[in-house]
Design a protein that fits this description.
With about 400 residues, the chain is an alpha+beta fold. Helices cover about 30% and strands about 25% of the residues. The protein has 2 domains: about 230 residues, 4-Layer Sandwich (Phosphatase 2c, domain 1), CATH 3.60.40; about 160 residues, no CATH class. It is elongated and about 70 Å long.
């Protein structure tokens, strides 16, 4: 079971910084994910610092199981000061620790209660324990332990969502949790397979739309987790170090169950030769500096190698995802996947290799290493790299 997670946010009107802070990290060795959404007091830079500090502390406490999630949340809850003017906590938070089998621990303090929607669009109301603060009389948190199944969704948000439209016409009390549930259920009825990224973006747009003049009166954040079958893909780039193993790796490529891409002319020729699959060149004129894609039966994408990989990495790092060339097609291929496998040939390409440099920073390996990191850290993908 794959955990598809994403968070979309908008700033309060006329502010230069997000007052909410979201952080998420996968731990492939432990087959789990930790995510935190924190809402800082007020808005702007001060709120950003408070929420960032809270979310980062919680993640650092919990990762590696150094401190149990409940103990970590208690430490943070008992440590957060109270604003002397508004008499409320400097920040609120929601934290989830969930593994690939669907066992989840969730702690909430001050944020709107999360929403759990089953595959049949039924909303669940799980049991929770109340944990009062030992430092502050009016502060407590909710602790949940739940078992998620295929098709389930979890939705976390800041109060900028549930209070959207407050005092505006028919929504005098804001959207509230009930309104958010109705909005999400209606969307899932129409698009039952919608991704976490699309659903969280939809929630944000709807919250903005019901604000007066569509100007957010608070920071708005929505995080969605979707538990589904993983979409797997394989990217083969660079010929193997040992040419005698070409047939072996071509067979691995052929038998892979999922989407497949080839990056590099030498690699494409290898697959074409070993599997007896002709390569068809794209007759369209290439856009920009990158060569056009090619076509091969049974392969979803065939591109040039180093140049395309380099531009793909640059665009992924910058968040520039809408480009109309081979790199744009590779970006879409990668982002439409959940579990991405790279087969990277270790044979040095004399056209790209400088013998004055150590082997560790040979261009292709370095690009794939950086790409794997950005796909994992920024786009929440599972990535495996195999050198051949």
């Amino acid at each position: 079971m794959f955990i598809d997670i994403d968070c979309n946010q908008v700033k309060k009107y006329n502010q230069n910084a997000f007052g909410d802070y979201f952080v998420s990290k996968r731990y492939p060795d432990e087959a789990k994910l930790i995510a935190v959404l924190s809402d800082g007091l007020g808005s702007g830079i001060k709120a950003n610092i408070l929420s960032c500090m809270t979310a980062t502390m919680l993640l650092r406490f919990v990762e590696g199981q150094q401190i149990p999630i409940r103990k970590a949340a208690e430490i943070v809850m008992n440590s957060l000061p109270v604003c002397k003017v508004r008499k409320i906590s400097y920040s609120t938070f929601s934290i989830i620790d969930v593994n690939d089998d669907g066992y989840a621990k969730i702690i909430e303090e001050g944020n709107p209660e999360f929403i759990w929607i089953k595959a049949n669009n039924e909303v669940m109301e799980p049991h929770y324990d109340m944990i009062p603060s030992k430092t502050f009389k009016n502060r407590c948190m909710k602790s949940y332990k739940i078992k998620l199944e295929l098709g389930d969704r979890l939705i976390f948000c800041s109060d900028g969502v549930t209070q959207a439209g407050l005092g505006n016409g028919r929504l005098k009390l804001g959207l509230r949790r009930e309104g958010l549930i109705n909005l999400v259920q209606a969307k899932l009825e129409k698009e039952p397979n919608i991704s976490s990224s699309e659903l969280s973006a939809y929630i944000i747009r709807q919250a903005e739309n019901i604000e007066l003049d569509r100007l957010p009166k608070d920071d708005i954040s929505a995080c969605v987790l979707y538990f589904r079958e993983p979409r797997t893909s394989l990217v083969f780039t660079g010929p193997p170090f040992n040419q005698k193993k070409d047939a072996e790796y071509a067979s691995v490529f052929k038998e892979f169950q999922g989407k497949k891409a080839i990056c590099g002319g030498t690699t494409a020729n290898l697959i074409s030769r070993e599997l007896n699959l002709p390569i068809t060149m794209d007759k369209e004129i290439s856009i920009g500096k990158l060569p056009s894609c090619s076509y091969m039966d049974g392969v979803d994408l065939v591109t040039e190698g180093i140049l395309t990989l380099t531009e793909t990495l640059e665009c992924l790092e910058a968040g520039n995802l809408d480009i109309d060339n081979a790199a744009g097609k590779l970006i879409k291929f990668l982002l439409d996947s959940d579990c991405i496998n790279f087969m990277v040939g270790a044979k040095l390409n004399q056209a790209h290799y400088n013998p004055a440099l150590p082997v560790e920073i040979e261009i292709r390996k370095n690009i794939i290493k950086k790409m794997a990191a950005v796909l994992q850290d920024k786009y929440f993908k599972k990535v495996n790299v195999q050198y051949m």
